[in-house]
Amino acid sequence: MRWLLRRIGISLALAWIVATIVFMTLHMVPGDPAEILLSTGGVSPDPAAVAELRERLGLDQPLLDQYGHFLLGLTRGDLGVSLVDEYPVLDEIALRLPRTLELILAGTLIAVVIAIPAGTYAALHRGGLFDRIASGAAALLLAVPVFVVGTVLVLVLAQILRIMPAGGYVPLAQNPWQHLTLLALPSLAIAKGLAAVVFRMTRASVLDALSRDYVRTAHAKGISPTRVLVKHVVRNALTPVLTVLGLHMGTLLGGTVLVEYVFNWPGLSTPLLRAVEARDYPMVVGIVLTISGLFLLINLIMDLLYAALDPRIRTA
After folding, report:
1. Which range marks the domain in which residue 217 is found?
2. Which of 56, 81, 89, 100 could form a disulfide with 286 if both were Cys (CB 3.0 to 4.6 A apart)?
3. Cβ atoms of residues 167 and 210 within 8 Å
4. Is 307 inside a domain boundary?
C-alpha cells in the first residue's frame, strides 16, 4: 500500500509540474494574446475590445493570481471556454476524447495480439526464416511514417480494392458493424509502429530470459517446456515489454493527430488543429493538459502491472 501511495503521489506531483509548465509557456509567448486574437488582416484591434478580452481571460490580473485561478480551475475540472465558439472546453474534450482513446486502444490491442506471439516465436526459432522475415518487416514498419501507412491503406484497400471505407465516423450505438469497419484502417495505421517496437522488444526479452540460469534449472528438473515458457520465460520477459508499451501508448495520444486527419476520425485532432490555427488558447491548453494527464495515468497503470508481474518491485 505504501508503494502504491508513493506512485500516486509522484504522478500527482508530475501532473502539477506539467500544468505549471503549460501555464508558464502560455505566458512566455511573445505579444499580448488578446491583441493577437483580435488582430485580423494586419489591422490593429480596438483598444477597448482588447481590454475587454483581457479582462474576460483574466490577463489583467497579476501573474500569481492568474496561476492560482488556473490551478483552482483544474481542481474543479474547469478548463475554461473556447474563444472561437464560446463552448466549454471540458465538454468538447469529453465528447471527442473517447473516440481518440478508442482508436488508441484498438491499435494497441492489434499490436499486442500480433507482436508478442510473433516476437516470442521468432526468439524460439532464432535465425530461422520467420525470424528474418519478421525482423525485416519490423524494421521497415519503423522506418515508414504513420501518415504514409495511412495513405497507402486508403489507396489500396479503399480506392483500388474497394473492400474498406476510406474514412469517416459512425457512432457505435447507431451502427456497430459500420463503426467497427470505419475503425479498422486507422487502428491498423496506429498499430504499425507500436507492433514493430513491441515485436523487437519481446524477441530480445525472450532471448535474454532463455539464457537465464533459472530457465535451464527448470528444464533440468523435468518441467514441461510449455510451462517453462509460460511461467518462467514469457512472464519475466513481459516487464521490459510493458515499459516500452506504456511509453509508446503515451506518445500515441499525440501521434494520432495525423491518423485522425487522414481518416477523418473526429477525435481530439480536429479541435486541436482548429484551436492552434485560431489561437484559441483555452482549447489548446485543455487538450494539452488532457493528453499529459492521460500519459501519466498510463504510466501509473503500467507500474501497477509491473508490480503484479514482479512483486519485488513493490519493495524497491
Report:
1. 97-266+301-315
2. 89
3. no
4. yes
